[in-house]
Amino acid sequence: MDLGRGRGHHRGRAPAGRRGGRGETGRAPVRVISTAPELAAEWDAGRLSGSVIGYVPTMGALHEGHLSLVDLAREQCDLVICSIFVNPLQFGPDEDFDSYPRTVERDLKLLEARGTTVVFLPDWDEIFPGRARTLQDFGTHVSVPRLSHQLCGRTRPGHFDGMVTESLLFLNLVRPDRTYWGEKDFQQLRIIETLVQDLRLPVRVVRGVTRREPDGLAMSSRNKGLLFDARAVAPHIHRVLLQSRARLLDGDPLPTVLAAARDCLTERGFEVEYLVACEEESLTEVRTLDFHAPIRLFAAAHLEGVRLIDNMRVTEVAP
């Protein structure tokens, strides 16, 4: 892997209209690039100027959760690179790859307004040239098995292997100093943190807190798939977690609290995939609370065909 050295000295060119002077906001227009050589040129230029490089990976269909990571990167870094790439390797055969929302023009406007420096917008062949669009047909797999088979990994076999394989590839291309991941997808976050730690990658993983709608629903690109009635019900997944945490901190037994929470969601029309408590670092499911280690509640449930996930720390109240 080449995560620390430059690759060439020819500066790439962004699409017409994306370079030039500063816009109405006073910020330089975002530079949109689509190839690895262009990305390498941006890295070279950043290093020559002494910039700290921050990287926010996304699959597009951006919401305030993504943009809060961009804001955090802008606070801490000189050059902010955001990627938009819907990764087929992490979608199962019955999942929503084809229907996953794609709103590129809107996303670019949002990123430019938040001061993103560069958007890496590659097509499939740039990332996986000549490869079929499945993990099984791709030559190299990366896996973090001790964190990938529980929680979402139980019902989405191969999902995290596809996610981490593509993520490592992008980290190798971008070569950032810091990369930004949200706590809403906490299992994904812990897998990336473990990947970086185990392989000694020269990048710091920075956590961003879960951003929520005013009614408590965790922001997600998939929320767009909720019809009106389902959207009104969806925040109950957050409310149930809040109520469960309060009961646990009052001393109620964990199995009793979790069973009641699952029943409550089922009564509201959710198809509960899991609602469990896990040790935060190892993601090991627990049956009793140990207040000497961080414990987190994790939930996944389907509501009228839309899969929702959420999580919440139990052993201390989030600031």
Automatic annotation (TrEMBL):
Where do the annotations place ATP binding?
Answer: 59-66, 182-185, 219-222
Documented EC number(s): 6.3.2.1
Copy the pathway line from the protein's UniProt record. Answer: Cofactor biosynthesis; (R)-pantothenate biosynthesis; (R)-pantothenate from (R)-pantoate and beta-alanine: step 1/1
List residues binding (R)-pantoate.
Q90, Q188
One BP annotation, GO? pantothenate biosynthetic process
Please list the residue ranges that the record marks as compositionally biased, kind Basic residues: 1-13
As its record notes, the protein acts as a catalyst of: (R)-pantoate + beta-alanine + ATP = (R)-pantothenate + AMP + diphosphate + H(+)
The segment annotated Disordered runs over: 1-29
User: Where does the protein principally reside?
Assistant: cytoplasm
Enzyme class comes to: ligase
Domain of life of the organism encoding this protein: Bacteria
**Which Gene Ontology terms of cellular component type are present?**
cytosol
The record ties this protein, via Gene3D superfamilies, to: HUPs (3.40.50.620), Pantoate-beta-alanine ligase, C-terminal domain (3.30.1300.10)
Protein residues bound to beta-alanine? Q90
Protein's cellular compartments: Cytoplasm
Pfam hit, one: Pantoate_ligase
| Keywords of the record | ATP-binding, Cytoplasm, Ligase, Nucleotide-binding, Pantothenate biosynthesis
Q: Could you tell me what this protein does?
A: Catalyzes the condensation of pantoate with beta-alanine in an ATP-dependent reaction via a pantoyl-adenylate intermediate.
- Subunit structure as annotated in this protein's UniProt entry: Homodimer.
UniProt family annotation: Belongs to the pantothenate synthetase family.
Official protein name in the record: Pantothenate synthetase
